[in-house]
Amino acid sequence: MASVDIAGVIKRFGVHEVLHGIDIGIGDGEFVVLVGPSGCGKSTLLRMVAGLEEITSGDISIGGRIVNRVPPKQRDIAMVFQNYALYPHMTVYDNMSFSLKLAGVDKAKIDERVNGAADILGLQDYLARYPRQLSGGQRQRVAMGRAIVRDPQVFLFDEPLSNLDAKLRVQMRTEIKALHQRLKTTSVYVTHDQVEAMTMADRIVVMQDGYVEQIGAPLELYDRPANMFVAGFIGSPA
Ligand code: ADP
Ligand code: MG
Predict the structure, then answer these.
(1) Is the ipTM above a cut-off of 0.90?
(2) Which of 37, 91, 108, 210 is the most exposed place for a label (fewest CB within 10 A)?
């Protein structure tokens, strides 16, 4: 079980409240996209699910267990960021195996996991290369490989494609969806791009100014937007 439950979550930075009571239930194996304009609180919410940001009040559960005080490393999650955060002085293999090494996984198992992920991502021929010797798309795959090798219960993506050019962005979103169809890992994917949300999501969460405006399947939001904001946001071109 790896549902993610966000219940009554409020976040304040000092006196500034940026999330005003968020309720989102994400089913086991679901691909949910959080979408909304820059500054609406998407990253903050995702970082709270990851344990990188404290919750002011409310609860977040993963797989039915409240994780409010559980440190990131003890939550069964892996996060993929927009800036890849690859180690420049390490090969692709070492980038992908690093967290497993830290966790004390034995060498044979690491080899199996890294090769498995490289297979899935088409990185078999690049394992000995360094990040600077890779294209943007390949770097993005390595960043995903680092998440996959850990075989987490939940993937968290924060605008993973926003540094890529338009053509590659379209290709990578197809790849990420195919990956999800194969692994069925519960995924929470943040973007400000409504086209990305519409094409990738099982369900979309539309956010504005620290509130959830609507949650629903892409077509549902398109056909029956809850308000003018959702209609305008979903309906307008990227
Ligand atoms: P998004 O990811 O949707 O663009 P963020 O979650 O990054 O939005 O930010 C939501 C709001 O919280 C913004 O007003 C931002 O300025 C504020 N914020 C984010 N992180 C911090 C922080 N560490 N300290 C103070 N304010 C922050
Ligand atoms: Mg953000």
Answers:
(1) yes
(2) 108
